[in-house]
């Protein structure tokens, strides 16, 4: 349900201004500057829809990227997985587009499209030759204006089956798949909106009805609750005119009520072990951490790099390279709107020792490394290595208009400023070794976390 | 997510919603309702103007191709060696792949860890790998760090250490990965299908990474020999794509690669034998007790990259299983809901690669799904309606410009052109070659390349639930395979 979006931002000693409007072929080198910026124009249509336009003339394509500010966090009890099931229905036709034609039209124009649902938002995109922008806007406006004209119980049934198979593919039939369902249940209290998985529970998918679709659409799929970014080989004024034209008959709605969020806090070490049809045991350590862009968030991204980013990272070097008791190690700050999660995930090597003992040994090494970071700040070089990699990752995202469009939407959603590129980058640039130490001390304590293990079920030897 | 894409490593960051429209927002007046009675007409797309391929040569004779892309200050430098996994000797399947993998485990004067630190510190990445017909070392870097990164890349490509301790370590990692592969139905079907179509002795019948026993047998001498035999200037091509010019980048390349000399023996030409075609329809079952889905893969030997039917096959496969609205996906996903998705594809290396159609279907609909696959195989051999042909041609042709957006994707296109010796006019002629495909072409190609009576059918799933319904179909003879037969 989540697309891979690596928010890595950063710098070289003299970074270049990118994303300016340029002719496609040999152009003079960009002007040197310390600023990274994606120029945009923003408009609010009469019905309340926010439109953000960015011009990039390098390739004759345009991307239409829409964010609805609704995700699995907005779901009600008994209907988990609904935001994502709803996402699927957005492709099944609308008042003036028959079932199947959304994709038929776009493919015939050389376009592609997809969507993803996360805890806090749902995004949709269409990439298409720039000459077909009207078609994309026709489809996008029709499903926002007229989706409910065509929704039937049979249509819900069809996508329900597809989504259940999506869940089987990613959860039931994937090694370690149940861990991603179980971990949030343990980290968050039952009434917290992050308690359940974005993909939802099977019985809730079974229970979803066409009436649920209508209610959800009226509540969350309003122009007020959406932002549309159009980026690519287009002229901002033309885009504004076309958007005004196509969205003119889409009626305004209301902003949904903000959701109530009970506190989530770990006060002790939670432990759970499950079995799976796997041969290599795996350990997950999870902490509740600050929301995206809050103090501590960028620090924890860097902590993840220092622990598990590349061969020289501390945990990889010890567990995989030197001791060779682990097959892989990852660490990451999964940043979200209502609170984030920091995870360390380690898969063990085959061993003649019992899996529990293997994982205990691995855990003790992780604890030693975390303790070192609590006791002393990382080397300047370790910090700078992470900063440099994040900066380079930023440039890579800037190569695609689709990448830029999604970031413009993400930044606008999070900060109200679509062109938050420099500010985001500055969060990483400003970090000092002491900040990293302080973040580990504050956010990754040894006595308040989840320790989750997956061990082989008895009969998994093949 | 609506359609499957690559797996996710990290979820996304976002925060507090700020509802107030920001600074420069302007409110726009309403206008009258648009005409929704039909979809708006689409103008013909603007032509893609690709930057020229600038060809140069270093003093040691190595060919260089440079493509300028000035949007973002990054650059891709790729050393392409024209030998890949197809060159692996019998008993040493996985050698090209392991050699490429070991290139950055210590090189020049640096140990594996020192090398990783130096590259990571630059914010650059150096990736090494091998595909069927080439091996590559790829540097991706900001232009500002190119001077510092290129010597590291040259060390990796030309002066790998191949230290015994590092090889031992990497081999253990690989052997554990084979253990993991046996746990994953998706990996099992990926190993099983080529094995039954090509057999254990043809190179294509075993994964690029080799097997437990072939990897166990690899020595430092094997790696050194492969490297010195195939990594030679005469067998290599340098490709540069990004925010550089020939004048700015050639001196750097000369410094890093110009003194690289050919060895004393010429590079051997290795040509794989053509494997015998899968003779008749046969079902192969692999048991995965408790599986919630069955992994299905169906097909046989397809075509080589040099096929004169390349463009016809692109369009044919788009209709059968290469797009979201393709027949397989429409049937198994949209019409029946048996799967999250279904697709098909032709792999086209230098010697004919497989055609395969795939889906992961819910366990209790496995037999039904097999029937639907075969319905679509039979259907595609009949004349394709004009509107369906049009949609597929446009999808392939009009989508083509969008595939040149990044330095990485441009480099990928260029690599294909270089490795398979495609003509200079290949990119500029692509759209019209696709648009020239006719309904008669499709039918001829389908008759030739989609012969369901001869297909291999691999199913990985819970045999206690799926075997009887599959037998009851009477689709083909059935053989059961063990994991050892697939991974050894």
Written description of the protein model:
The complex is a heterodimer of chains A (462) and B (488). With 462 residues, chain A is an alpha+beta fold. Chain A has two domains: 41-247, Metalloenzyme, LuxS/M16 peptidase-like (Cytochrome Bc1 Complex, Chain A, domain 1), CATH 3.30.830.10; 269-377 and 432-456, Cytochrome Bc1 Complex, Chain A, domain 1 (2-Layer Sandwich), CATH 3.30.830. Helix content of chain A is 40%, strand content 18%. Chain A is built from 15 helices and eleven strands. Chain A has helices spanning 82-89, 101-108, 133-146, 153-172, 179-187, 202-207, 210-220, 236-247, 297-308, 314-322, 355-375, 380-397, 401-415, 421-429, 433-443, and strands spanning 41-44, 50-55, 61-68, 112-117, 122-129, 226-232, 269-276, 282-289, 326-334, 340-348, 449-456. In chain A, the strands form two sheets. In chain A, strands 1-2-6-3-5-4 form a six-stranded mixed beta sheet, sandwiched between helices. A five-stranded mixed beta sheet of chain A has the order 7-11-8-10-9, with helices on both faces. In chain A, β9 and β10 form a beta hairpin. In chain A, α10 runs antiparallel to α11 (355-375). Chain A is globular, with a radius of gyration of 23 Å. The two termini of chain A are 32 Å apart. Mean pLDDT of chain A is 91; it is low at 1-33. With 488 residues, chain B is an alpha+beta fold. In chain B, β5 (125-130) and β6 (135-142) form a beta hairpin. In chain B, α3 runs parallel beside α8 (246-257) and α11 (366-380) crosses α16 (463-473). The longest helix of chain B is centred in the middle third of the chain and has 20 residues, at 164-183. Residues 6-26 of chain B have low confidence and may be disordered. β1 (41-44) of chain A pairs parallel with β1 of chain B, so a sheet runs across the interface.
């Amino acid at each position: 349900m989540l697309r891979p979006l690596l928010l890595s931002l950063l710098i070289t000693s003299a970074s270049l201004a990118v994303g300016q409007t340029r002719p496609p072929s040999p152009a003079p080198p960009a002007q040197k500057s310390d600023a990274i910026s994606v120029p945009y124009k923003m408009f609010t249509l009469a019905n309340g829809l926010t439109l953000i336009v960015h011009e990039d003339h390098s390739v004759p394509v345009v991307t239409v990227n829409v964010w609805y500010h609704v995700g699995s966090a907005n779901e009600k009890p008994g209907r988990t997985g609904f935001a994502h099931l709803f996402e699927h229905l957005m492709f099944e036709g609308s008042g003036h587009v028959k079932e199947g034609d959304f994709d038929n039209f776009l493919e015939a124009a050389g376009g592609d499209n997809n969507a993803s649902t996360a805890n806090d938002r749902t995004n949709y995109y269409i990439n298409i030759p720039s000459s077909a922008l009207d078609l994309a806007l026709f489809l996008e406006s029709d499903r926002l204006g007229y989706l409910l004209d065509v929704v039937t119980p049979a249509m819900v049934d069809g996508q329900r089956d597809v989504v259940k198979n999506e869940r089987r593919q990613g959860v039931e039939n994937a090694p370690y798949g149940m861990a991603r369902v179980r971990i949030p249940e343990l980290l968050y209290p039952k009434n917290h909106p992050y308690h359940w998985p974005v993909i939802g529970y099977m019985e809730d998918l079974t229970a979803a009805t066409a009436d649920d679709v209508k209610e959800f659409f009226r509540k969350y799929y309003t122009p007020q609750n959406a932002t549309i970014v159009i980026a690519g080989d287009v002229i901002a004024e033309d885009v504004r005119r076309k958007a005004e034209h196509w969205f003119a008959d889409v009626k305004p709605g209301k902003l949904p009520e903000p959701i109530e969020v009970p506190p989530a806090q770990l006060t002790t070490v939670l432990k759970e072990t499950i079995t799976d049809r796997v041969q290599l045991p795996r350990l997950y350590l999870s902490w509740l951490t600050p929301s995206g862009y809050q103090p501590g968030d960028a620090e924890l991204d860097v902590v993840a790099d220092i622990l598990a980013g590349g061969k020289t990272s501390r945990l990889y070097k010890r567990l995989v390279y030197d001791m060779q008791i682990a097959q892989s190690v990852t660490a990451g700050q999964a940043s979200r709107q209502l609170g984030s999660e920091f995870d360390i995930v380690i898969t063990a090597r085959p061993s003649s020792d019992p899996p529990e003992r293997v994982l205990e040994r691995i855990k003790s090494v992780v604890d030693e490394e975390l303790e070192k970071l609590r006791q002393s700040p990382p080397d300047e070089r370790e910090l700078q290595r992470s900063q440099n990699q994040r900066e380079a990752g930023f440039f890579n995202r800037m190569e695609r208009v689709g990448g830029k469009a999604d970031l413009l939407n993400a930044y606008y959603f999070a900060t109200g400023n679509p062109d938050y590129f420099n500010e985001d980058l500055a969060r990483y640039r400003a970090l000092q070794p002491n900040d990293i130490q302080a973040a580990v001390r504050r956010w990754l304590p040894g006595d308040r976390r989840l320790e989750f293990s997956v061990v082989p079920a008895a009969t998994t030897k093949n | 997510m609506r359609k499957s894409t690559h797996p996710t490593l990290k979820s996304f960051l976002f925060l507090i919603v700020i509802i107030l429209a920001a600074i420069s927002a302007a409110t726009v007046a309403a206008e009258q309702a648009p005409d929704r009675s039909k979809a708006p007409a689409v103008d013909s797309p603007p032509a893609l103007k690709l930057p020229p391929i600038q060809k140069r040569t270093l003093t040691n004779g190595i060919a260089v191709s440079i493509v300028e892309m000035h949007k973002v200050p990054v650059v891709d430098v790729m050393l392409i060696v024209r030998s890949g996994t197809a060159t692996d000797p019998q008993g040493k399947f996985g050698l090209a792949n392991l050699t490429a993998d070991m290139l950055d485990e210590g090189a020049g004067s640096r140990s594996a860890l020192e090398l990783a630190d130096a590259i990571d510190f630059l914010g650059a990445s150096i990736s090494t790998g091998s595909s069927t017909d080439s091996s590559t070392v790829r540097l991706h870097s900001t232009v500002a760090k190119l001077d510092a990164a290129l010597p590291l890349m040259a060390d990796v490509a030309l002066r790998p250490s191949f230290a015994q301790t590092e090889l031992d370590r990497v081999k253990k990692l690989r052997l554990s990965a084979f253990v993991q592969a046996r746990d994953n139905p998706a990996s099992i079907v990926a190993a099983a299908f080529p094995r039954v179509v090509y057999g254990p002795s043809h190179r294509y019948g075993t994964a690029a990474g080799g097997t437990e026993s072939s990897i166990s047998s690899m020595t430092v001498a094997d790696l050194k020999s492969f490297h010195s035999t195939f990594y030679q200037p005469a067998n290599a091509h340098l490709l540069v794509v990004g925010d550089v010019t020939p004048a700015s980048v050639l001196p750097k390349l000369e410094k890093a690669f110009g003194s690289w000399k050919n060895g004393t023996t010429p590079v051997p030409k290795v040509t794989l034998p053509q494997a015998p075609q899968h003779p008749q329809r046969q079902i192969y079952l692999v048991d995965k007790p408790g599986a919630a889905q069955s992994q299905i893969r169906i097909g046989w030997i397809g075509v080589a990259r040099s096929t004169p039917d390349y463009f016809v096959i692109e369009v044919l496969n788009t209709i059968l299983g290469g797009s979201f609205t393709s027949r397989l996906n429409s049937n198994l996903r949209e019409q029946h809901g048996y799967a999250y998705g279904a697709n098909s594809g032709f792999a086209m290396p230098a010697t004919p690669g497989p055609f395969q159609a795939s889906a992961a279907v819910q366990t209790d609909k496995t037999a039904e799904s097999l029937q639907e696959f075969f319905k679509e195989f039979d259907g595609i051999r009949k004349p394709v309606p004009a509107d369906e042909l049009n949609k597929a041609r446009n999808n392939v042709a009009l989508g083509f410009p969008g595939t040149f957006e990044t330095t990485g994707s441009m480099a990928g296109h260029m690599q294909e052109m270089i490795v398979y010796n495609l003509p200079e006019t290949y990119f500029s002629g692509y759209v019209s070659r696709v648009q020239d495909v006719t309904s008669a072409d499709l039918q001829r190609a389908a008759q030739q390349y989609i012969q369901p009576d001869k297909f291999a059918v691999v199913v990985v799933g819970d045999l206690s639930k799926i075997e009887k319904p599959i037998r009851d179909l009477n689709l083909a003879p059935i053989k059961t395979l063990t994991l050892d037969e697939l991974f050894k």
